[in-house]
Amino acid sequence: MIKAVIFDMDGTLIDSQPIWYQVCTDFFQQNGFPVTMDDMIKLTGSPVAKLVDYVLQTHGQKDKERAQLITGLMDYAVSEILAAKPLMPNVKEVLAQLKQQGIKMAVASASPRNMLQGIVDSCDIAEYFDYLASAEELDYNKPHPAVYLHAAQQLGVNPTECLAVEDSVLGMISGKAATMKTVVIPAQAEWDDPRWTLADFKLTNIAELPALL
């Protein structure tokens, strides 16, 4: 029996991936790195620190200040996403239905807490979540299961009684490694990726989620 649903944030609850791709491309180019949009798309689901490490290693500029790049990129991305408030269609209705059913809910994201809190506040969905789990506060980020296990612990629910909802392969692996049932809602361009067969359920829209419960 599923007692809790734990959501990824970017690409699952908010349509932020296009913003992330543009923000990362612009930011790195402004800082002298010849990255492309395709470079950023290939790293979908990766935390900011991994993006920065990839760019530094790929372009051989390890003398650049890593911590400064991480902070600068995150600040830029958060401001752009909060300004856009890109809530996915049907999200608020689905969250309300799950809450009425007595389902506990949390967010498990690679993004920092200030971004998660800012998004749920600005999109008016904070009331639905019992906990916001940021992998940046833990020892490991996705695809490690730490953030999902931490969220389940904070909810007081066994991981095997949780449903993880994701849009990326890295996130799906994280949820599965946490021994949770995993739902994936892929972007249309990634729908035919054979790796989705690892998930327990594959949906076209978050509106289909309540029927699973």
UniProtKB/TrEMBL annotation:
Its cofactor is Mg(2+). Keywords: Carbohydrate metabolism, Hydrolase, Magnesium, Metal-binding. Its EC number is 3.1.3.-. One of its GO terms (molecular function) is hydrolase activity. Coiled coil: none annotated. Pfam families: HAD_2. SUPFAM superfamilies: HAD-like. Gene3D superfamilies: HAD superfamily/HAD-like, Putative phosphatase, domain 2. InterPro entries: Beta-PGM-like, HAD-like_sf, HAD-SF_hydro_IA, HAD_2, HAD_sf, PGP-like_dom2. Belongs to the HAD-like hydrolase superfamily. CbbY/CbbZ/Gph/YieH family. This is HAD family hydrolase.
